[in-house]
Write a structure and sequence with these properties.
alpha/beta; 3 helices; 20% strand; elongated; binds 2-acetamido-2-deoxy-beta-D-glucopyranose; Leu-rich_rpt; membrane; glycoprotein; leucine-rich repeat
Length: 366
């Protein structure tokens, strides 16, 4: 009697253990298989482990929450430290598209399908319904179409990396609703239109990389309200208007790349005594004088002001800068003597050529 009771308990316990360890729900497994079916990876066999019923165990790149047994992460990177790449002596290549089936993985918090070079088609708009998504990294593919209009619904999103694709359309107005966003990289796409005027609502942003797109219009003043922003790259667009002076007052902004735009107006003196240590304003239509505002707080590893319309002389205060590693003021309309002093000892003539009448070392004497 007691033995039967014992075996009953054991049986029930075993059943229970089987049901919980039985990992992934069939609906999530089906969603993953649809996702896989839309992709083709001919070289490495990335998907060869995607078989059997339990998608939570040993499916390459898939992770589940151990408590709720739901898929929380897809991490497929065509350039990674994983042995499958070093063994094959090649980086990833995949074709096909990103199936909207991923949107059925409603607990997904991280979706990385990056550096596969050949994945095309649009970003499924339904991605905007993945309310737990924190990381969206689709960099280095051939994705086309727009950034999903409703992307702003992804409240926990911290990383949005869509660099190196062929994404077009505008920056959706809802994007500035991403109040958790820390890292945004849209570089090297075909994004057009203006940068939203209320861009400064992205208060958690520390890197905003928008270079090599077709953005037009002004640099929004509100950007300077992003207290944590350390890296702002708007280079190689069609931006116009002048540089907001408030950018020079930002607490941690260290890199400011505005090169290759249509920016006019003067260089705000605030930029010269800011936290900025890498400043590239090359290839714009910036006019006026180089501000005579250098001081011991001016520390530049890079200051590239070449190919603009600067005139006047090189300001005397520049000798008081703490450090200027790489200075390029070539291709402007500057005139007068190059001041002697430590910031200039290591510079070559190429930093100063193609001006109206600069003279002195390292150019010919005045
Ligand atoms: C941003 O979020 C607010 C509050 O949820 C909402 O009312 C608004 O429509 C959103 N803006 C956009 C452009 O989606
Ligand atoms: C500054 O930008 C220009 C134009 O995009 C580029 O050619 C140059 O290499 C950059 N300068 C530095 C020092 O990186």
């Amino acid at each position: 009697m007691a033995t039967t009771f014992f075996y009953n308990i054991l049986f029930v316990t075993l059943l229970y253990l089987l049901s919980v360890s039985n990992g992934c729900p069939p609906s999530e497994r089906a969603a993953l298989l649809s996702f896989k079916a839309a992709l083709r990876e001919p070289n490495l066999g990335v998907f060869s482990s995607w078989k059997g019923t339990d998608c939570c165990h040993n499916w390459y790149g898939v992770s589940c929450d151990p408590n709720i047994h739901r898929v929380t992460s897809i991490d497929l990177r065509g350039r990674s430290e994983d042995p499958i790449f070093s063994k094959a002596h090649r980086t990833g290549y995949m074709t096909g598209s990103i199936s909207p089936a991923v949107c059925r993985l409603t607990r997904l918090s991280s979706l990385t399908v990056a550096e596969w070079n050949g994945i095309s088609g649009p970003i499924p708009p339904c991605i905007a319904s993945l309310s737990a998504l924190r990381i969206l990294d689709l960099t280095g593919n051939k994705l086309t179409g727009d950034i999903p209009a409703e992307i702003g619904r992804l409240r926990p999103l911290a990383v949005l990396n869509l660099a190196d694709n062929q994404i077009s359309g505008v920056i959706p107005p809802s994007l500035t609703n991403l109040s958790s966003l820390m890292h945004m990289d849209l570089s090297n796409n075909k994004v057009s239109g203006t940068i939203p005027e209320n861009f400064g609502r992205l208060r958690m942003l520390s890197r905003a990389l928008l270079s090599q797109n077709n953005l037009i219009g002004p640099i929004p003043n509100s950007i300077s309200q992003i207290y944590r922003l350390s890296d702002l790259d708007l280079s190689l667009n069609q931006l116009s208007g002048s540089i907001p002076a408030s950018l020079g007052k930002m607490a941690v902004l260290g890199t400011l790349n505005l090169d290759g735009n249509k920016i006019s107006g003067p260089i705000p003196p605030s930029l010269i005594i800011s936290r900025i240590s890498k400043l590239n304003l090359s290839r714009n239509a910036i006019e006026g004088y180089i501000p005579d505002a250098f001081g011991p707080r001016s520390y530049f590893t890079v200051m590239d002001l070449s190919y603009n319309k600067l005139r006047g002389g090189i300001p005397k205060t520049i000798s008081s800068a703490a450090f200027i590693g790489l200075l390029d003021i070539s291709h402007n309309h500057l005139c007068g003597p190059i001041p002697p002093g430590s910031p200039f000892y290591h510079l070559e003539a190429s930093s100063f050529v193609y001006n109206d009448c600069l003279c002195g070392k390292p150019l010919k004497s005045c």
